[in-house]
Amino acid sequence: MFALPPAFEEKMKKILKEEYPAFREGYELPRKFGLRINRDKITPEEFEKLAPFELTPIPWVDNGFYYGENDRPSRHPFYYSGLYYLQEPSAMTPANILPVNPGDKVLDLCAAPGGKATELGAKLHGKGLLAANDISGPRARALLKNVEVFGIPNSLILNEVPAKLAENFPEFFDKILVDAPCSGEGMFRKDPDTAKAWKPEKPLECARMQKEIILRAADMLRPGGMLLYSTCTFSPEENEQMISFLMKERPEFEILPIPNRYEGFAPGRPELIEKEWLPAELWDEDVFDSLTEEQKASLTNCARIWPHRMGGEGHFLALLGKKGDTLELALEEPVVKKGKKKRKEKQSDSAKKFSKELTPFFDFAKDLDVDWDFTRIEVRKGQVYYVPAESAAVRGLVFLRNGLYLGEIRKDRFEPSQALAVSLKKAQYWNAIDLPADDERILHYLKGETIEIEPEEAKSPKGWQLLCVSGYPLGWGKLVNGLLKNKFLASWRLS
Ligand SMILES: C[S@@+](CC[C@H](N)C(=O)[O-])C[C@H]1O[C@@H](n2cnc3c(N)ncnc32)[C@H](O)[C@@H]1O
């Protein structure tokens, strides 16, 4: 029988009451595997036609599918061309529910390795800004890779503490996701080590950290904006009690109903903020007393995903609105402020200044069917970037990327980047070679090998080529005498 910490079992019996036996039996069932389609590259319908695996739609995620235990989607070329992300099905829910529109300024505050940030970025369709942050350096690097594989051009990847971000971005973002570090009680079946590491104090330890994170997030949201708070745990301390704490500390926040709420979501539980859920000395009477009956009742707007009720491991979600401007404001065209114009003028000066150094890039860019805003091209130590149109004050912050890394200028030649390749559509580069997914040369290419190209497969017999798999860009190569020299990024290669 799957081993659970006894104190956890006791707590869950109290929360779930007569549902507990079904919950407990669920640990003996095989777990479900999910993949989520990159909606900026392909529609679920198109992917179903193309998919090499058997897929079953996830009922509450419009671009999510279950796949079979024996499939290996992480080794398929479509994974490398950013067509999907592998993700536990209930973890797909927060980014699916947060209403993000192209043009929004979006922050994912605890983003690594990017399961939710990639969906938020795909929803932006290249317009607006995706700021994705993680406090851990190694995890932020994994986040950068996943955002790049997804081809998201308008991203800012940060490695900061929330307090520092809050200094730079007061009331700046339209939408914020806080997928908080938590005690991970919904991860036990997927990762039995989390169950071994669990102890009764863990939820409270996490709650202390979450309080700081959620307040800093609240301060970075503009009035009228929306914040989605989620955890993959069941404990009231990290869920209903955390939302109550926010409403006490920031009374301008209210819990919104989840749009098109899936019938399988269980409501949040107002009674879980009552005294019996914490040892007396830890119970925050102030929080409880400060909330109105209406606020307490609105906790039912939150959603609990229970693994014995739905095909997912478990999650908690709360969609919050910050009172102020109307929520619809985020849908309007951004207002061009005077300050912004000045910045543009300044940028075009710098573009002029760099124009000579950038000549090799401009020569290459002539062959790309991209509607560039040249004021956004920046070059630093030979590396060329396309910074997001929505500028963010990054001064003094640790960031790994601001915008799309386009490539490098080396001795008067421009070497396009892997990130640029996967951010393009096949039709945007005239010299594209398109091979089907089952052509074994694709696997050789992904391993970093040189591959042979027949004359009729390439439009031009030499020079840069964009290698595509079934119509989706995978990476660059240089064609010389029928051989495609491999330019697939070494750190992304298939081993
Ligand atoms: C639940 S995981 C996020 C998973 C991610 N949203 C995804 O879907 O792939 C929580 C993340 O929060 C990060 N974290 C922990 N404390 C943090 C803090 N104070 N500020 C920002 N990130 C933090 C951890 O490094 C971890 O990557």
TrEMBL record:
Active site: 232 (nucleophile)
One BP term from GO: RNA methylation
Domain SAM-dependent MTase RsmB/NOP-type residues, every copy: 23-323
Superkingdom per UniProt: Bacteria
Keyword RNA-binding tagged: yes
Matching SUPFAM superfamilies: S-adenosyl-L-methionine-dependent methyltransferases
UniProt cross-references to InterPro entries, sorted A to Z: Methyltr_RsmF_N, MeTrfase_RsmB-F_NOP2_cat, MeTrfase_RsmB-F_NOP2_dom, Nol1_Nop2_Fmu_2, RCMT, RsmB/NOL1/NOP2-like_CS, RsmF_methylt_CI, SAM-dependent_MTases_sf
Keywords linked to the UniProt accession: Cytoplasm, Methyltransferase, RNA-binding, S-adenosyl-L-methionine, Transferase
GO terms, molecular function: RNA binding; RNA methyltransferase activity
Statement: the UniProt record of this protein carries the keyword Protein biosynthesis: no
Entry similarity comment: Belongs to the class I-like SAM-binding methyltransferase superfamily. RsmB/NOP family.
The protein's name: RsmF rRNA methyltransferase first C-terminal domain-containing protein
Originating species: Fusicatenibacter faecihominis
Lineage, top ranks: Bacteria, Bacillati, Bacillota, Clostridia, Lachnospirales
